[in-house]
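Re: the 262-residue chain
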Amino acid sequence: MRDKIVIKDKKALVSNLQELNLIRLIPNMTTIAALCMGLTAIRFGILGQFEYAVLSIIAAAFFDGIDGRLARLLKVTSELGAEMDSLSDFISFGVSPAIVIYLATMSQLRNIGWGIVLFFAVCMAFRLARFNVMNLGNRGDVDTEMSQEFKDKFMGVPAPAGAMISLLPLILYFAFDMPMALNPYFYGGVLLITGLMLVSRIPTPSFKSMTFPRRWTLLILLITAGLIVSLIIDHWITLSGVILIYIGTIIYQVCVRQKVST
């Protein structure tokens, strides 16, 4: 009788290995969608369609924001998915913005402009590598004490947010027709600062760990509805406002940290 049960269990295991529920692939499919949007942004940049390029990177950020949550919700997290997500992030938020921005304005500075966008992309790669190390059990140069300090916050600016900050001058140009926003010297400064923010150890807000009182539920829903309406009415102005508010939260976190340390 026991032998029959063992044989039955082995057959069930083989069947499970041979058959895979499509729902379990949804997180990885979402990661692939983010990667495809990042690569599509490069194509739009080459064609000179910079508005579509920026929108493609924003779409990549959206897919990147939900793939991990879907994996945890469906309980299908895996090392393969984590590695795919990291590679997708580097293409979508490191390589794509660098190439789009270079084609849009930094090419005017020739080799210097290329060097600046390379600096941004390298900072993005370092930021993602450090994030992976922290998630693999505090190995490498990241110690436990530092990990605890940033338990509810990000260390430095996360990859999608860094990409959005790097695209802010382009978004401001689309929203307000500001030629100064595309000045290569000004944009170069933005890229250098953004790169340093990516690799910095300043605490930045993590919305995954944010909580709020239950009585705020209606207010949060109303704000969300207002944001969606604003995006429909004028997405460029709304996006620029959201990014500037996010930068304001980072400045606030830095000020609070300095006040506590003194």
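The first helix runs from residue 2 to 18.
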